[in-house]
Amino acid sequence: MQALREAYPGRVPIHLSNGVAYLWSVQDVEVARTQYHICGLLSGTLPLIPQQNVFLGLPLRLIPEEVVLLLRNDAGVLIDESNAYFTPTDEEQQAYLDKRAAGIAEQKERALKKQQENRERAEAALRANGDDALARRRLRQAKKGGATETPPPAQEPAAVEESFDKAPYLHITEGAPDQTPGFRPRTRRMCTEGETPNAYESLQEAFAAGVFTFPSTYVERARCAVFEDLHKQGYYMSTGLRFGGDYVVYPGDPLRYHSHYTATILSSKDEPLPAFHVIASGRLGTAVKKSHLICSVTIAEPDDEAAAKSRVAGSDTGEWGSVEYWSLAWAGFGT
C-alpha cells in the first residue's frame, strides 16, 4: 500500500469491494472532503458507542458518482479488493509475528504492573490499620469456630510470569485492508512483466477491465452530469433518499450548513413531467423545509454503445452533458 501512495502522491486510494467503493483511512476521508467536496456515508461501527444508528465510523462508503468524480479529476486510484491480496512474503509474515508478540508482551507487562499496584495498596491498608485490624480478624474467626489462617506466601516473580504465559490475551484483528499482510495493490504503471494490475488510475482503465462500469446507461450518465455540474458550482451532495430526491444539495460543508435543495433528475428534456409530479415535488420540498430542484439533462452522447466505445478509447473526458435547473416551492408556504 505504501508503494501505491508513493507512486500516486495526493491521490485517494478507493477500495472497491462487491461493487461498493470505500475509503478506509481518516486522512483520505479528510482529503476527499476538504479538497473535493466528497462527503460519502460512514458505515462502520463504533464499539464504544451504545447505539449504532446515529454515530458511525470508518469505512466511508462512496456513491458511484463520487467515485467517477475522483477518477476524472485524477484524485483517486481504484483498487479491486478481490484481486489485491497475495500470499505474504517472509518479511511481511515476520513483521506480523513481531507485532503480535510485542502486543502480547505489552499486555503481560500491564497485567504485572496492575497486580503489583493492587498488592502495594493492600499492604498499605494493613499498615495503616496496624495490629488492631489483625487482632479483630482473629477474634472474628475464633467466634465462628474457624482456625486462624495464615496468608499465602507471595508468589515469586518468575512464578507470576509463568502463570501469565498460560493466561489468555487479547488479539486485535486489523480492520483496514492496508494493515493486512499480503495486500499489494498495483496499477499498470507499477506492474512488472507478467503481472496483472489490480488498481486503476483512470475511469477508462477500470471500465476496460470490467471492474467499474458506472456510468453505463443513459440515466447513469445523466446522474453524473448533474453531480459534476453542481460540484463545479461549489455545492456538496449526498444521497437524497431521506428527503425524496436523488441528491441532497448543501451550499457548504454539511457539518456547517443545512441543505438547501433536494434534487430530482430528468434524464432528458423530452421526458414528460406530469402536473401531479410538479405539485408533489413542490409540496415535498415544503414538507422537508427545502426547495425541490428539478434537473433536466441533455446528454452529449445518448447512445450507450457509442459512449462505451468512447470511454474505452479514452475520448470521453469532456462534460457528460448540459444541465438546466428549476426550483419548486409550494405557493403560500415558502421553504
Automatic annotation (TrEMBL):
Pfam family of the protein (one): tRNA_int_endo
Gene3D superfamilies in the cross-refs: 3.40.1350.10
GO biological process: tRNA-type intron splice site recognition and cleavage
Active-site residues, record numbering mapped to chain: Y250, H258, K290
Residue stretches making up the tRNA intron endonuclease catalytic domain: 223-297
Acyltransferase keyword on record: no
Residues forming coiled coils: 105-132
GO molecular function: nucleic acid binding; tRNA-intron lyase activity
Domain of life per record: Eukaryota
Gene Ontology cellular-component terms listed: tRNA-intron endonuclease complex
Record-annotated TSEN34 N-terminal domain positions: 12-81
Family, as annotated: Belongs to the tRNA-intron endonuclease family.
Database matches in PANTHER family: TRNA-SPLICING ENDONUCLEASE SUBUNIT SEN34, TRNA-SPLICING ENDONUCLEASE SUBUNIT SEN34-RELATED
Protein's name in the database: tRNA-splicing endonuclease subunit Sen34
Organism of provenance: Malassezia cuniculi
Gene: SEN34
